[in-house]
Specification:
This protein is mostly helical. The chain has one domain.
Length: 74
Amino acid sequence: MGTIGRVLSFAFEATLVSTALAGAMRTAGVSVNEKKIEPEALRGVVSAYFGVGDWVLDTTAKQIKNYPDYFKRR
């Protein structure tokens, strides 16, 4: 696997972890206290990282709602 493959693999895995953390945080009703993160540049990176997870989670939920024949509510 070349360098591009490794970068894409890392990006995909980071997105999966971010999405799982976003789902867990929503379920538990908690969020990251970004004010406690000291370097402001790192604060922006953390915010963007969790923002990607939230976006993927929201987009997936919307797509699931578009196909009610395959998914039912509990």
